[in-house]
Amino acid sequence: MKILICDDDPDMQFLLSYILEEAGHKPVIIPDKKRLFARSSSGVDLILMDLRFGEDDGMDILTSWTYECPVILITGVQNPDLKGREKALGIIDIIRKPFDPLELMTYFKSIKHL
Predict the structure, then answer these.
(1) Less CB within 10 Å around the terminal CB: N or C of the chain?
(2) Nearest 5 degrees, angle CA 62-CA 65-CA 70?
(3) CA-based nearest residue to 5, from 78, 73, 64, 55
(4) What H or E segment, with its residue span, contains residue 30?
């Protein structure tokens, strides 16, 4: 699966990219909102969106960008207030930081199609 990694932290980009590649997926790093908005979601199977994506709120970005695939939020916030917008924004799961890389790899190995 082709998976967008929307995260501004280079260490997180590297780690998530490594985990996804090892799980058999094709990660594409999107380091900022400008690059995200410059591309289409065509051909993308899943979006990993950091809740705090640089200076922006990931939920606001999802509200203003057009995409047609499911989203998994990544956040260090233990109980994020999503205000009931998860379903409307296509959010299927939330990954909380810090996470165990081996558990996350197992999780992504189990995802073949969405």
Answers:
(1) C
(2) 55
(3) 73
(4) strand 26-30
When divided into structural domains, the chain yields a total of 1
Summarised one tens digit per residue, pLDDT across range 101-113 is: 999 999 999 987 6
Long-range contacts, stretch 54-62, CB < 8 angstroms, 24+ apart: 54/8, 58/6, 59/83, 59/85, 59/89, 61/6, 61/33, 61/36, 62/89, 62/90, 62/91
Residue 58 CB-density burial (10 A; 0-12 exposed, 13-18 middle, 19+ buried): buried
pTM: 0.91
